[in-house]
Amino acid sequence: MAGLPDITITGTLVADPELRFTPNGHAVANFTVAANDRRFNREAGEWEDAGATFLRCSLWKDAAENLTNSLSKGARVLLTGRLRQREWTTPEGEKRQLFEVDVTEIGPSLRWATATITKATRTTAAGAASPAGVDPWASAPTAAGGAPVADEPPF
């Protein structure tokens, strides 16, 4: 199978998600999730945290707005997305790399919490609510040749 690896993560939001908008008006939320590596120490008979992995994440469009309206710092979340590796060189010449997740789905973990679900209403480009069962993203804007516009999500 070609493409980037799909992953599922259970973790904790380390800060409130940051919502911003692209020049074309598309919402994007950026946030960091901390995932702990817990292992059972048989000799001590207890669980131990082996450290945390911090992953930068991004989520686009209506889901980004729903996230920022629903979850905040400290929330335990389950998410799926595509893992990306980004590399760069600092002005001092040091090579750096970072793993990021392009999130496709996210929700609260219900292991130690409850959630009340409210179905979000979507709006069309004209600002009117779209009818139930209609996908407002079905006619997303494209550039010449059918490629997504530059500020569209990368998937």
From TrEMBL:
InterPro entries: NA-bd_OB-fold, Primosome_PriB/ssb, ssDNA-bd. GO terms for molecular function: DNA binding. Residues 122-132 have a biased composition (Low complexity). The keyword DNA-binding applies. Pfam families: SSB (PF00436). Residues 122-155 are annotated as: Disordered. It comes from the Bacteria. Keywords: DNA-binding. PROSITE patterns: SSB. Gene3D superfamilies: Nucleic acid-binding proteins. Homotetramer. This is Single-stranded DNA-binding protein. It comes from Haloechinothrix salitolerans.
